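Q: Joint fold for the lines below.
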Amino acid sequence: MSAADATSVPANAQSLRMALRVLGWIGLGLIALAVSLSDFLASAPAGATGIGPLLAPPSTQFQFGTDVLGRDMLSETLHGLSMSVRSALPAVLMALVFGALSGFAAAHLPKPFSVTLRWIIAIPAALPALLLAILAIGLTARGWASVAAGLSAAPLAFVRAFDRADMHARSMHSEYARATGISPATLLRRNLVYEFSDAFAAGAARALAAVVVILSTVSFLGFSAEPPHRDLGLMIAASKPYYLRAWWTAAFPALALMVLVLFARLAAGLDEGERP
Amino acid sequence: MLRFVLNEAGRLLLSLFGAALMSSAIATLSVPHAGDGVLQFFLAWGLRLNRSAHLQFGLSSITGLPIASELAARLPLTLGLVLEGMAAAALIGIPIGFLFGAGPVRRAAAPLIQIVAAAPVFCAGLALAYLSANPPYWPAQIGDGVRFGLKILPQTAAHAPATLLPALTVGLAGAAAVQLALRRAAAETARESWRIYLQRMGLLRWEIEGLYVVPQIFAGLLAHLGEVMLALLSASAVAEWVFSCPGAADLFVKSVALHDWSVAGAILFVFATLTLTAEFLGRCAARPMIDRGTST
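A: Joint structure:
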């Protein structure tokens, strides 16, 4: 490989990554628009039964078909998407505050405290976030599903942020900074600004991808949303008895869910094996 | 190396102790009046820990059976699913990880990988069930996966579809985790300066790849074995629910729904043990490979 190749390949990779990130943010923006206008865009209110014939396949009149109660699947998918996004937003905030931000700050505490904290948080991080969310909902109530999803996504984010901050603290620039008399507080402030000014939006998108999957799965298992406020996970769960002969009842909500997660992952710039 | 293994073993023991504390705290919620105050809770927690140390895990508040026998009946199915899923993950994930982890293909595959990774496990499970029930009419139904014992392979051809669907669902989730770990390791190895130095020393490209790069990538996968185990366990919970397999993950979901905290705590401890042990084994196995690369 020539020197020119060596410089052009990363540049191409950077531009592709940037294009994908922009695509992700545009997609999330469109979803936000659809969510905020869902009541206007949907031809039927949420949970309205008998709008059309039972289990009618997609047609010009009902583009996404109807379900077993004659609900318009297009309207229901829009309302479900709106419900999923709205319940994910508090969870994203929880995951960011108790995950990445706390992990980064904890790594700068005095050594005995930081090591103990890392050990404590690593224990829930050794459990699947899905099971943690189910446990948290079981210990509280279904109304707390958003908080539970955010808290269950936090331990792994905490551990990753802690390890990254620990690596920063042992890096050469930190050594030089300490040697030149820069205080630990100034160094922490600098690292926090460096970490979160560039990566806050990407971190939020990453948390969104994670909590949407957790929330929809706990809903699918019957632990989160309750009728008539159905999110996408509950819509897919409700279609389970008859989706083998009426595919559209599960396919369109699943597609909406996948598109939401896909745009969040793209916006986060997840690549090279990163997990949300 | 011995010092590293001893360090890791110490970390494992400490983490297992923490997991035991957490699971017994959850199980304490089953004790009557434990929630009346902080002091009562800590007293009940201490008693619970003492009993657990004497291998007395208590009774399920739903079935009235000893928790040890509940676990003995349900856990083999989950372990079987995880093992089958791990085999499927290795068979699918490793070739894909290497294929999509190399040079220009890695960048071209990035959007495709994102689309595949965006599918939640329950959507993949339902899609597999749908494909099995429609042309070409694979004779399997949702809820047909009842089986007991650690059966790595189905015993008869008739059992195969029912056995394979949940295993394939878990395997696909595991394969996604495996190929992500491989791609991450491949990306990290691609940035290493020693590749250029080895080229300048006159080694051929395939020699560098075969002798140095591939072991480093495998080391990266092994170092993230804990994450792969997390993905497999999480997928097991969903697969057992979708295909009505009465495994330990399914029991956990039902125990939480019915507030049977003793059983839920015990299952969480087992799952944490599996993840922590996988992490320990993976890190110990990866260490010699990483040392070899570093010395290069």
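Q: Anything notable?
A: The domain at 2-295 of chain B is CATH 1.10.3720.10 (MetI-like fold). Chain B touches chain A through 60 residues (CB under 8 Å).
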